[in-house]
Amino acid sequence: MNEQKLSKRLEKVAHFIKPQSRIADIGSDHAYLPCYAVLQGFASFAIAGEIADGPFHSAQDQVEKTGLLAQISVRKGDGLQVLERSDEIDTVVIAGMGGPLIASILENDEEKLAGVSRLILQPNIAANRIREWGVRHQFKIVAEEIVEEDRKIYEILVLERSHVPVNYSEDELFFGPFLLKEKNAAFRSKWQHEQDTWKKITENIEKQGKTSENELKLTELRAQIKRVEDVLK
Description:
45% of the residues lie in helices and 23% in strands. The chain is elongated and about 65 Å long. The chain starts with 7 loop residues before the first helix and ends with a helix. It has a seven-stranded mixed β-sheet with strand order 3-2-1-4-5-7-6, sandwiched between helices. It is built from nine helices and seven strands, in the order H-E-H-E-H-E-E-H-E-H-E-E-H-H-H-H. The longest helix is centred in the C-terminal third of the chain and has 23 residues, at 185-207. The protein folds into two domains: 8-181, 3-Layer(aba) Sandwich (Rossmann fold), CATH 3.40.50; 187-232. By secondary structure, the protein is of the alpha/beta class. The protein has helices at 8-14, 32-39, 53-66, 99-108, 128-136, 170-175, 177-182, 185-207, 212-232; strands at residues 21-26, 43-50, 72-76, 91-97, 118-123, 139-149, 152-161. Strand 2, helix 3 (53-66) and strand 3 form a beta-alpha-beta unit.
């Protein structure tokens, strides 16, 4: 993977960037995505944000090597704190983190999103936490994609500001409104795997004997298993 050829997952993420956007890639690692986005014309300006020294210096080296110092600013900081109002960022990308962490990054510095109209988010787990955050902060889901790469399955969520309250059913929050309609092979594979995992956990808990804690956990797991069964019918 490099600035010319991204992974399948990141390439899908990049193609949700509108042409000539001003983007911030939070947790940018080697800054491959900002470099690719600028070179392909998806972004006119980009910030590559990193909190750790190693990835921060890797991103700096990559941007310099690619000759994009005038168009990409590499910054060290925690989450959205690397953004300034003068940057006029309209699109924020956060890819490769857990859903709860992405939601907390957005929650902790919500004022930094004042001029942002589009969020492109790729959680590794618990995408429902991002959808729930969107409902609370009036960001509607405008697109979703689920892709399989190297035997792992990733969800990509695209959210935009809404001027009216955002509402989804429990199933739409859990599975994704667009993904739920399509139910492609990757979707079915993901949720079949989740269901199989929950069934094994259920069997192990049942062997431990009855306790109030175990009964509560079993009730939750059986409800999740039934929900997936209904969706995959």
